[in-house]
Amino acid sequence: MIDLKNKKRIVIKAGTSTLAYPTGFFNLKRVEKLIRVLADLKNSGKEIAFVTSGAVSVGMGAAGLKNRPSCIKEKQAYAAIGQVELMEIYKLEFAKYNHKIAQILMTRDVISNPERKINVSNTLNTLLDWHIMPVINANDTVSIEELDFDENDTLSAITAKLCAADLLIILTDVDGLYDKNPATNDDAKLLPIVHKITSEMLCSAGEKGSAMSSGGMLTKLEAASICMEDGIDTIIINGEEPEILYNLFEGDAVCTVFTS
After folding, report:
1. Are 83 and 62 in contact (CB under 8 A)?
2. What are phi and psi of 235, to 5 degrees?
């Protein structure tokens, strides 16, 4: 395990499987715990940018839909519903601990356009300097295929680069990266530290886990690779119990660390 004590600016990404039940509705108990931990980390002096998934799934739950929409217009509509739900809950929960949040929605053209890239980087850095927590999500409501991030793992890595983060933490529904698929191989072993992402790792990354998620281990490896290019360490860790972040910063957590 690397020393995390001096990691001050941190991007934390929570996937849909961490935030919501399979029904699409928010797992309020877990979300409340997560926000309390994030607020406490800020209290300790950490600068936190929070990348959230879940707008489409929460919108589905609010509208009573059980199956993920197959057409883009439905996805956009459910994202519009869910984004309101997300931010309302986050605003109320963070306010309990006297922390303010700000919403940033992004599409790929923000990154490909030099002027927009500078603007969003300036906004992120200013908010962090002001001790206001940026809450970042893909702008699925207006997204089309050419502008879509596909999933928020990539978005979290890009966010880490834009704000010159010291660390990216990806909360998911597994403990980290295994040498083989643990769902089908009882002898699968967790890899505690990775210095280089190999083609073999990418090939064995497998499919997405949750029916509500849009990514999987492959997208997390790609995110780690993006960060490693800029010298940003990445951690994949199970977010089922948000208090595990305390253990992580104390050097006692089961996870995978990607470090260059």
Report:
1. no
2. -125, 130
Report the C-alpha gap between 23 and 5 in whole angstroms: 38
CA-to-CA separations, 251 to 44, 126, 246, 255, 257, in angstroms, rounded: 16, 30, 9, 10, 11
pTM (predicted TM-score): 0.91
If we measure between CA atoms, which residue out of 164, 159, 165, 151 comes closest to residue 221?
A: 151
State how far the Cα of 137 lies from the Cα of 132, in Å rounded to an integer. Answer: 16
- pLDDT for position 149: 67
- Residues with Cβ within 8 Å of 45's Cβ and at least 6 positions away in sequence, in order, are 8
Cα separation, 33 vs 15, in Å, equals 15
Question: Distance between CA 239 and CA 220 in Å, rounded?
Answer: 14
pLDDT in tens, 50-78: 999 888 878 887 787 777 777 888 888 88
For residues 150-167, average pLDDT = 92
| Residues sharing a CB contact under 8 Å with residue 195, sequence separation 6 or more, in sequence order | 258, 259, 260
